[in-house]
Amino acid sequence: MIQLSWASIRASKSYLIPGIILLLGLIVLAGLPSFGPKYSVIFLSTIFMYIVLTTGWVMFSGPTRQISLATAVFFGIGIYIAAILGKHMPLLVMVLIGGLASSVMALLVGSLTLRLKGVYFTIFTFGLLELIKNAINWYEVTFTGTRGRFVVVVDNNTIYLYMLAITVLTVLTAFLIRRSKYGLALQSIGEQEEAAAHIGINVTLMKVSIFAISAFFMGAAGAVMATRWTYIDPFMAFNMNYSFTPVLMAIFGGVGQLGGVVSGAIIFAYLEQILITKYPFYYMLVFGIVMVVSVLFLPNGLAGVVKNWRARTTGGRYVRT
Amino acid sequence: MFVLEGQGVTKYFGGLAAVSDVDFHVDQGEIVGLIGPNGAGKTTLFGLISAALVPNSGTIRFKGENITGLRPHQICKKGLARTFQSVKVFSDMPVINNVVLGVHFGTSERVKAAQAANEADRLLEFVGLSGRAMVPAKDLTLVNQKLLEVARALATKPEVLLLDEIMAGLNSTEITQAMELVSKIRAQGITIFMIEHVMKAIMSVCDRIMVLDHGKKIAEGTPQEIATSKMVVEVYLGE
User: A199, B153: Cβ pair inside 8 Å?
Assistant: First the structure.
């Protein structure tokens, strides 16, 4: 027998309408390649990529408050898996392997380093990126004689649909974890790690698991996106921008709420695409200004602005966080 | 067989022996007090029992089983919970979620969300915090945060509860209430090992008292014996 408390009935009702809108939106997005303009497919694939990287980053770094700069490592591993295996196997298998390889990497790195606290962990993850980039570069130059690799070509519509699917899975996973007892446990680890351990939470296991889960989606996204670039080298695949941009997007959107994170990624990615094509020389400048302004004036990101506005319009009534 | 016992427990911080060759035991259903001047090693000993710290030598047994070297979450799942001298509540979370986490993760059983919320409600009422369930834990007074820690520890269904100075900073009415709470917890069949500086409380609530000084156990006995022990008076009053 299913027992529904009053709170959960209210909660399920409040999810009904946004749920239907989301579903309709997804159906339109899934059909886009058959009716939309050709460029929109390429454009949206990039936005999806950023949503996956940002949501993946927030999955781990949001609740645990340990800033990871390893996003580009996991993304890059996916890219290299595509370059190495792409010609030998179907796309779906390649994407799964790309994700799994990144997960394995996260498990290894996580079990070694998640004891590191605060800035030491952040610096380690950044160092890891440089280490792997240069190690692969050394290997390629020494043993294959060429720095880069060609990647199997996949048509844009397939890339788009794969990215859409990975995005939906990433956001759904993040949403479900956040609502579960494991999401609550991760948050408790971020707030008081010692107390969390003493009420029975296996802190290391929790942190390493969520690190590996988030890495899976980053790696899968890397494997798909690689097929669009046709040629990759270590400096493209392990570009540090893929570590930093998701952090900026998450801060801009508001780390505390999934809706904020996703909208932050969408707006920022949109801005980047427009600026790069229209003002290629000024886009980093505009980026920087937006960042400074949002850190100074929007401490909780866009989600915080929306929350404050809702609190005002409901006459300061208690707003569910 | 004692529910909790330690033999030759020793912990060094650098060259300093914070706890030195301490033997102790706690019987099923007892309330045992642990007293001593500041820096005597009381909290360190609790840290060693709950596995926050690893002893340099000695063994700690829980219900006859050697638990030295286990990790904190394993100790908790075995039935040994603690509170912290410097409160460590999950401050950005609503009060109730602090306790819900204890219900979910403190034992190996799977608990449904609704059931966990009910259990947490019951525990908040038990410690006297009902009505504060939805407040962020950081908005509670220090006294109430300490009570929340007790509720969170009880949520893990312990057989032995280590209470680290839950009465520090309380006024005399609150101390009386805290003493009642300690007795109520024992009445539920939970064994209590408590550090306390409030002598009135420790003398009236404990069955037995252990005294630490400079990391060594210097006395042990009934409250009566401790109160009349010349050695203890010397340590406390510095005569």
Answer: yes
Q: What are φ and ψ of residue A320, in 5° steps?
A: -65, 130
- B115 to chain A, any CB pair closer than 8 A? The answer is no
**A interface toward B at CB cutoff 8 Å?**
3, 5, 8, 181, 184-185, 187-188, 191-192, 194-203
Residue B31: strand, helix, or coil:
strand
**Contact criterion met (CB below 8 Å) for A71 and A215:** no
Stated as kind and residue range, the H or E segment containing A7 is helix A6-35
- Give the pLDDT of residue B85: 92
CATH superfamily of B1-79+158-169+192-239: P-loop containing nucleotide triphosphate hydrolases (3.40.50.300)
Provide the ipTM: 0.92
Is residue A7 domain-resident? no
For residue B82, give the nearest of A181, A198, A202 by CB distance.
Answer: A198
Of A135, A107, A110, the closest CA to residue A125 belongs to A110
Residue A118 lies in a domain: yes
pLDDT band at A47 (very low <50, low <70, confident <90, very high): very high
**Interchain proximity B93–A199, CB inside 8 Å:** no
- CA–CA distance from B84 to each of B3, B15, B221 (Å)? 21, 25, 25
**Pairwise CB contact (< 8 Å): B113 & A203:** no
B199–chain A Cβ distance below 8 A for any pair:
no
Total domain count for chain A? 1
Residues in A closer than 8 angstroms to B81, CB to CB, are 198-199
Q: Which segments of chain B belong to CATH 3.40.50.300?
A: 1-79+158-169+192-239
Mean pLDDT of B154-182: 94
pTM of the predicted protein model: 0.90
Candidates B55, B52, B51, B3; CA nearest to B24 is B3
Kindly report the nearest CA distance between residue B128 and chain A, in angstroms.
20
What residue of B is the nearest CA neighbor of A202?
Answer: B73
Closest residue, chain A, to B50 (C-alpha): A198
A170 occurs within a structural domain: yes
